[in-house]
Write a structure and sequence with these properties.
The protein has helices at about 30-45, 80-100, 100-105, 110-115, 120-130, 135-140, 150-165, 185, 190-200, 250-255, 255-260, 265-270, 310-325, 385, and strands at about 5-10, 15-20, 50-55, 55-65, 70-75, 145, 170-175, 175-180, 210-215, 220-235, 235-245, 285-290, 295-300, 355, 360-370, 370-380. It is an alpha+beta fold and about 375 residues long.
């Protein structure tokens, strides 16, 4: 996704940072100031400016805690309002994740804040890069999981390692998906899980080394810092734990090999897999996405040698189409009331199934209880067979 992202301090309109990525026309400083100025004007007149469309751009505004205003400018493409609003909320949560909510609200030393906020830029880049392999977690606000028979064994290794690290929060990532995690890790909010996933997966940690990062959990602990410690066991395999002030990094590092050495064969085997092997998958299926909305988890898989990049884009587009037109996502009330699901004014019943037929593929989706399933099929499959 090509974009301009700007952050301003609500009090006085002081710019905090500006980020630009992708093939998008540059924005002058005067236009940047005007975008913030029109938002300030609306706010001072008890009006809420959310978005607008020009011949070339889509522009979105959102303020948080009367402290920070975020402005997102994208190319005038098919970016739905619900997705951009969700993305802005996620961006602000990243700021809290790296800087802390109290410091963002008070922010007395703006120059110092500008320097410290830069720590979140790598996470923002991974979240805003919509063609990444993990873009589906941004759309669905779920953690991608990895299904394999070895998960039971790996769970025992993770539980033992987390206990030795004096942590209740631990997760093992394989090929950018969560293979296993501790119970308390899964109890974190959807936004926290997504940010942690991106932070761990895109952390620049070479094999056999580790990283330590001070973090704030945006909803669980927005004011009290924790330590996120990430170990790279082998390429594409990382284990992360969230700790307090103790134990020391050196003491945890000394225990890594003792807990994971015996699991290396299983990790090597799982790292080479791109499709689940625990179910009999029909040959007409290119790929699928299963979402558990109550547990904030998803399972995403594609067949090998089937143009995975193209199939992934088709699945992303199909998901956005269905969510944007039939299954509306929860939208938070501006006054802070808990999110509630909404439906189209022209829709007087619950849509459980939908499908699309194209020249190169067919797509089908259905929902049942807390589960939503999206599937991309070969175009030759009959419509009645998809369900």
């Amino acid at each position: 996704m090509a974009y301009h992202l700007m952050a301003f301090k609500c009090d006085g309109g002081i710019p905090l940072f500006t980020k630009t990525k992708g093939n998008i026309d540059p924005i002058s400083l005067s236009l940047t100031a005007s975008l913030n100025g029109v938002h300030l004007f609306c706010s001072s007149n008890d009006a809420q400016l959310l978005s607008t469309t020009t011949n070339e751009f889509r522009i979105f505004w959102k303020s948080y805690h009367s402290s920070v205003t975020l402005i997102l400018v994208t190319c005038n493409g098919d970016y739905r309002d619900w997705l951009m609003s969700q993305l802005l909320d996620l961006i602000f949560s990243v700021l809290v994740f790296t800087y802390g909510l109290d410091d963002i609200i008070s922010m007395k030393n703006v120059d110092q804040a500008k320097k410290e906020i830069k720590a979140c830029f790598p996470i923002l880049d991974s979240i805003l890069q919509s063609n990444d392999s993990s873009c589906m977690s941004i759309l669905t606000l779920t953690t991608q999981t990895f299904s394999a028979s070895e998960n039971v064994i790996l769970q025992n290794h993770l539980d033992g390692f987390s206990e030795a690290a004096q942590s209740q929060y631990g997760c093992l990532f394989i090929n950018a998906a969560a293979a296993v995690a501790t119970k308390r890790w899964w109890e974190l909010s959807a936004v926290e899980l997504v940010i942690l996933e991106h932070t761990v997966i895109w952390s620049d940690v070479s094999q056999g080394t580790c990283s330590e990062l001070a973090i704030y959990l945006p909803q669980t602990s927005p004011s009290v810092p924790h330590r996120l410690i990430v170990f790279t066991l082998m390429p594409d395999v990382k284990v992360a734990v969230i700790c307090g002030t103790s134990p020391s990094l050196d003491s945890i590092t000394q225990k890594v090999n003792g807990f994971w050495q015996s699991a290396f064969d299983s990790l090597l085997n799982l790292r080479s897999k791109n499709f689940i092997d625990t179910a009999n998958i029909d040959n007409n299926i290119f790929g699928f996405l299963v979402i558990n909305t109550s547990r904030n988890r998803s399972l995403l898989n594609f067949r090998q040698n089937q143009g995975m990049g193209k199939q992934r884009k088709l699945l992303c587009d199909f998901y956005c189409h269905v969510i944007g037109s039939l299954w509306f996502p929860p939208i938070p009330d501006p006054k802070g009331v808990e999110p509630t699901a909404i439906c189209s004014s022209s829709q007087n019943h619950l849509v459980t199934d939908t499908y699309i037929c194209a020249d190169e593929y067919k797509a089908y989706a259905f929902q049942s209880g807390a589960h939503r399933v999206f599937v991309i099929f070969n175009s030759a499959i009959p419509v009645y067979s998809m369900r």
